[in-house]
TrEMBL record:
Naturally occurring in which organism (per UniProt): Rhamnella rubrinervis
Biased segments, Polar residues type: 408-419
Feature: compositional bias, Low complexity: 21-43
Enzyme class: transferase
Function: May be involved in plant defense signaling.
Primary localization class, coarse: membrane
The family this protein is said to belong to: Belongs to the protein kinase superfamily. Ser/Thr protein kinase family.
Domain Protein kinase: 80-363
GO terms assigned for molecular function: ATP binding; protein serine/threonine kinase activity
UniProt feature, compositional bias: Basic residues: 381-397
UniProt name for this protein: non-specific serine/threonine protein kinase
Chain spans, region Disordered: 15-58, 368-419
Top-rank taxon, per record: Eukaryota
Keyword field: ATP-binding, Cell membrane, Kinase, Membrane, Nucleotide-binding, Serine/threonine-protein kinase, Transferase
Organism classification: Eukaryota, Viridiplantae, Streptophyta, Embryophyta, Tracheophyta
């Protein structure tokens, strides 16, 4: 759940007689007993439910989560056996497990799950566990990981998620060894688009959500490399209509946090956009945002790489070598330009995530479009426009409306390229 700056979180020990705060609107879900577990009355407990009917996402009125017993999860993970560990973060270890799903839709079949178990020595503890339930328990979107349920028993705090077969983007970008296959260009841009759609949903939802810890390790991939944002332990509700930002203690991960947030504790929706820009640079370069093993002056990826992103000739020198040159140079250059916009030092100059999604979708078409020979007429048109490339070759972020500035700064409408 990230590295914290400032004072550590209160390591609150939950009281088993208390009520779970189960919703962004501070509502509590009613549960009914069912074979040792409590399931909300409208539960659709299934690894594949919900998102298909709402491709643009939805916010549920109350969390739709299953209340697991500790015994169930202990059995599902074979007593939290060491060889079932999928990973470990600030909250604790994540285990792979198998659960017998007795719902009629699955005919009693087993399903794979991921179980996150709080480390008793963790500084993140109850507040982050509760935040995960409050936010992810009500948010449903194809690019957000499904939280299936939770366990709160004595001092044991656990969270149960859908299992993501391909693991994290971090592992694919930075992992080494025969088991780790480098991601081809088309998969990288698919992942970027999926993650951007997830963030855009959070930012434009009725209850605006600031994610606050966007990074490669929090982007998980299913068997089709669909990107899903996970880990909402640091998420915050966005500012009210009368304010531009939320003021909060600084928490997050070194290398991804926006400069205004680090300096002042002022958290904006576009603070997430900065983190997204860092991940875009990681996708392009295959290099970590922060790596002290690199030579002096290259520890911080942005400080080192930023001058390379604005020139095609320099860019090719820092593109991930594991792509082996198999990528569309024009699309890579546009992605680098988008990353630069996302990491602008002033948050007001960064694009919205909605604009980022549209630009990435356009970049994807650039990658797929076969190169066409340039005709003399095309050259004459470009010459009349003062050397500008034709409009249909320009990114949505560069297209102008009525002679104004970039669309994401001056207009609520973003023009998509003409076919």
């Amino acid at each position: 759940m990230g590295i914290c700056w400032g004072s550590p979180a209160n390591n609150t020990t939950p009281c088993t007689t208390g009520q779970l705060n189960t919703g962004i609107s501070q509502t509590t879900s009613n549960t009914t007993s069912s074979g040792g577990s409590n399931i909300s009355g409208n539960s659709r407990f299934s690894a594949g439910s919900g998102d298909e009917s709402y491709p643009n996402g939805q916010i549920l009125p109350t969390p739709n989560l299953r209340d697991f017993s500790f015994a169930e999860l202990k059995a599902a993970t074979k007593n939290f056996r060491g060889d079932a560990v999928l990973g470990e973060g600030g909250f604790g270890k994540v285990y792979k497990g198998w659960l017998d799903d007795k719902s009629p839709a699955r005919n009693g079949s087993s399903m794979m799950i991921a179980v996150k178990k709080l480390n008793s020595e963790s500084l993140q503890g109850f507040e982050e566990w509760q935040s995960e339930v409050n936010f992810l328990g009500r948010l449903s979107h194809p690019n957000l990981v499904k939280l299936l349920g939770y366990c709160w028993e004595d001092t044991e705090l656990l969270l149960v998620y859908e299992f993501m077969q391909k693991g994290s983007l971090e592992n694919h970008l930075f992992g080494r060894g025969a088991a780790v296959q480098p991601l081809p260009w088309d998969i990288r841009i698919k992942i970027a688009i999926g993650a951007a759609r997830g963030l855009a949903f959070l930012h434009t939802s009725e209850k605006q959500v600031i994610y606050r810890d966007f990074k490669a390790s929090n982007i998980l991939l299913d068997m089709f490399y669909t990107a899903k944002i996970s880990d909402f332990g640091l998420a915050k509700l966005g500012p009210s209509a009368s304010r531009s930002h939320v003021t909060t203690r600084v928490m997050g991960t070194y290398g991804y946090a926006a400069p205004e947030y680090v300096a002042t504790g002022h958290l904006y929706v576009k603070s997430d956009v900065y983190g997204f820009g860092i991940v875009l640079i990681e996708i392009l370069t295959g290099l970590r945002a922060l790596d002290t093993n690199r030579p002096s002056g290259k520890h911080n990826l942005v400080d080192w790489i930023k001058p390379f992103l604005s020139e095609k000739r320099k860019l090719k020198n820092i593109i991930d070598s594991r792509l082996e040159g198999k990528y569309p140079s024009k699309a890579a250059f546009h992605m680098a330009g988008l990353a630069l916009k996302c990491i602008e030092s002033e948050q007001k100059h960064r694009p919205s995530m909605k604009d980022v999604v549209e630009t990435l979708e356009w970049i994807e078409t650039v990658a797929e479009k076969p190169r066409e020979p340039r005709s003399h007429s095309t050259n004459r048109v470009a010459h009349r426009r003062g050397g500008q490339q034709p409009l249909h070759h320009r990114s949505p972020l560069h297209q102008r409306q009525d002679g104004g500035g970039p669309a994401y700064q001056s207009s609520s409408k973003v023009y998509t390229p003409r076919k």
